[in-house]
Amino acid sequence: MDEQDRTQVTDEVFLEIARSAMQAVNEVARQEKKSALAELTQLFSERIAPQIVVRRPEPDVAAVAFEIKLTLIYGVRIPDVVEKVRAAVKTEVENLTGYTVQRIDILVEKLVRPEPAAESESVNKEI
User: Fold this and answer.
1) Within 13 Å and on the Cβ side, how many CA atoms surround 32?
2) Is residue 45 part of a domain?
3) DSSP code per residue over 19-52
């Protein structure tokens, strides 16, 4: 490759990859029946979207950092969910872009209780 050739990836691309990676975490949670983590899928995809900020630690270096704000369901093991999100984002970004993810700071901004309406609907379906 010529030394003048250059490829850049926009922040919007990094945002889309991070969002997609977090949805993959939700897919894992969906497979766990009747758990509090299963409710996380609804929060990410339907009601409460994570806030993601892309940072470029050094100009002209193929590296990126993220700040992510999450809302989780009360009762989940926060360190486990955060590590799943962190690992999914890092792996996906590095695999798709070739950029190094230098850090992913995650702020758990809020906890919400699972919605009782969803539980009563599932009970009614079983009867």
Assistant:
1) 12
2) yes
3) HHHHHHHHHHHHTSTT-GGGGHHHIIIII-PPEE
Are residues 107 and 71 in contact, defined by beta-carbon separation less than 8 angstroms? no
Alpha-carbon gap, residue 117 to 15, rounded angstroms: 32
Across the strands, what pairs with 70?
108
Per-residue pLDDT for 1 more than 90?
A: no
Q: What is the pLDDT of residue 89?
A: 96
Query: What is the spatial distance between Cα 93 and Cα 39, in angstroms, rounded to a whole number?
Result: 25
Q: For residue 63, what are the domain limits?
A: 11-112
Number of separate domains in the chain: 1
Read off the CATH number of the domain in which 34 is found: 3.30.300
Does pLDDT of 16 surpass 80?
A: yes
Confirm whether 122 is domain-assigned. Answer: no
Would you say residue 25 lies in a domain? yes
Q: Which pLDDT band holds residue 24 (cuts at 50, 70, 90)?
A: confident
- Its pTM stands at 0.71
